[in-house]
Amino acid sequence: MKILVEKKRFNRRMKLGFHFALIFLTTFGFTAFGQTKDQLAAAEGLLKNVPTAEIAAKAAEFVSNAPTKEIMLNVAVSVTRAVGKLKPEVLSATVAAVISASPVHAPAVVTAAMLSVPAKALDVITVASHVPGVESKDLIPIALAAAPKGMAKEVFAVLNR
Question: What's the pLDDT tens digit per position in 39-62?
Fold first, then answer.
């Protein structure tokens, strides 16, 4: 009986979490991804000449230098998307660095990374869930909502390790 009650609670939390993720994506996600082309171009321009080995550190520096949390969110998402477009091979390292600079914005950064390079979704989730200050349970609804088709089970398995 106790197991059944726990399973019902878990299912209710997951359902609420999934609805939260959809609400998050429709509010923060699309406003963050609805950035102007100029903002994304500016982030790309800043990172274009940076050596590959230094991109993650430079991205974290840009995020930590933002004056307000709203601007920090915008910078974190812009930088993550720019790295996904310019040099996807260092996207996981960049996600870890950006989240370390601003753990509060982990869901938005993970979503931006997963949507910009869907092939790297599992790598991004794995790295993001191991950054200090980030609870993997907080990433489950966002990651499941942003996961490419057919990868939900793998994403859920990675976050429940």
Answer: 778 888 888 989 999 999 999 999
